[in-house]
Amino acid sequence: MKRTAALAFAVIASVACGAAGPAAAPPATAAPAAPQSPTPEPTTGSPATATPSPTAPPEFSAKVSRVSRDRLPYSWRPGCPVHHRDLRLVTLTYWGFDDKPHTGELVVRENVTDDIVTVFRKLYDWRWPIYQMKLVDAFKADDFDSIDANNTSAFNCRQATGSTSWSNHAYGEAIDINPRQNPYVTADGDTAHDNARKFTKRPTKGKGVINPGDKVVKAFAQVGWEWGGYWSGTKDFQHFSKGGG
């Protein structure tokens, strides 16, 4: 009896420790996983794209080149105080009234090209606006028409206003800037251009206006150019010239 009891006890212990027994249950089967839903497609719009950064305006540029006779069909003629071979075409960047960069042209005497490039580089960097800049030949060298069109220009073989002497423009050593906003004003306060009458007083506010002592006047003064706005009696607010006159 003792041996039989011992054997029975050994069988029970073996089953408890995981040995195979006569009635081992099959392993439980895991429930199938739920199907994954597909990633939903966008319902509206197009794929997102990065917003482009604004393009910076181009740097100031200036090119000085010889000017051919056929570029000056009206503004130069034999007998002018400077030969066209002594003139230069300056093609440069300027900031427009539309707040965009533009390319303009000026004809000046060879000896002042560095002055012009120096000043207009500053004006562009300041984003100081100029309405337009064409050779006066685009207006058949008619000074009145060029001024009426608010055109910035330089060389023009003509006499000074109200004089029989050559203007500094005839030497290629003067420039008129934004002539509508900066008109030629007689001693009694009048101007020949109707579209400029609101700008006859100084100081005054406005896009492209030149006032006494402002940075445009100072920039020209630094290269030895004088402003017509400082003349006594008659004022020529548009006019800058090398050494005055």
Brief overview, please?
By secondary structure, the chain is an alpha+beta fold. The protein has one domain. 17% of the residues lie in helices and 16% in strands.
Description:
With 245 residues, the chain is of the alpha+beta class. The chain has one domain. It contains 4 helices and 9 strands; from the N terminus they run αβββαβαββαβββ. The strands form 3 sheets. Strands 1, 2, 3 and 4 form a 4-stranded mixed β-sheet that branches. It has a 3-stranded antiparallel β-sheet with strand order 5-9-7. The radius of gyration is 42 Å and the shape is globular. Residues 1-25 and 42-46 have low confidence and may be disordered.
What structural class do you assign from the helix and strand content?
alpha+beta
- Please write the string of helix (H) and strand (E) elements: HEEEHEHEEHEEE
Number of strands: 9
Radius of gyration: 42 Å
Give the number of domains. Answer: 1
Biggest beta sheet summary: 4 strands, mixed
State the helicity in percent bands.
10-25%
Low-confidence stretches: 1-25, 42-46
Gross geometry: globular
The helix count comes to 4
Percent strand equals 15-25%
Distance from N terminus to C terminus (CA atoms, Å) equals 144 Å
Mean pLDDT rating:
86
